[in-house]
Give the backbone structure.
Amino acid sequence: MNEGVKKIIAKSLCSLGGDAALRTINKHKVLVLTYHGVYRRSQAPIPLFTHLSDDLFRWQLQFLKDHYHILSMTEFVARLKAGADFPERSALITFDDGFRNNYDVAFPVLKELGVPATIFLTVDFIGKLKMLWFDKLFLLLKRYLRTGTSLGQIHHQLVEQKEVTNLHDLYEVATALYKTMSDAEKNERLDALTAESDLSEDPLAAQFMLMSWENVTEMFKSGLVDFGVHTATHRILRGLVAEEYSREIDVPRKTLSKRLGREVSTFSYPNGIPDRDFFTEHEDYLKRCGYSCAFSTRVALNDMTTGGRYRLNRIAIGNDLTSDRHLFPLRIAGLAAAGRKEC
């Protein structure tokens, strides 16, 4: 089904009260949303699912305020640990990675509307001029295409086994392949692409930088933004050996707890598909480290009477159909399959 048809169907369903009906049916389930980056509409647009314009972000937050009981992470964890009931139509807003634009762009909107949120940080990269590998890959591919390198050349260098016809498809194929590689192989390939490219010249480069510890401190002191751990260096847990668990899971929790002056007990999995990117052994380790709960990328609402605390569901929202002004209300109310499956 193409995007136009989906939009028409979504608009019709909303006009008939479909989203309100779903909110009523699922009123005892908890909605957890996942965002990544938020950019200013006045700046160059970021053509990636993971980055959303500030006008859409503001509209979505206002919709959530009007139709949901938005929880802080503190309240969410307290109710979870106590086994207490959640208010009807509860919602929790989260961000992954820790982009600088969470501070520059998203934070002012959160303050304007008085909406609490939690940001899961790639802890070792905070306060450093570093870029996550998949964002670096996107800029490299974009630069190669812009400077005249043929798509065929890039395709051969990167993936070699699947035909692609444009930057978006190439990026999707390349990132999927890179996620199966060891860190050494992935870094070797990225280094080869980076050798003759100055990414600092790209106007989008600043948008992919992560925040500073000063940003984290200011947001935390506002009382509106909480923080959790997204590993130390964005490693997918399935690729870790047991000796690496502490460095990627326990040490960043201690580092962030010390920075905030308060115990940190929430975690989100990079990639985060249950029983593919993490397993029971990882959940058990998180519990032993003192984490209260952990968030996956399985797309569904949370039935708080079933399921585990260490594989909570989230619905990702980004720069695609998931932000359509009619599909968004349906998706977050329970029609989660009507959009992107994972992020």
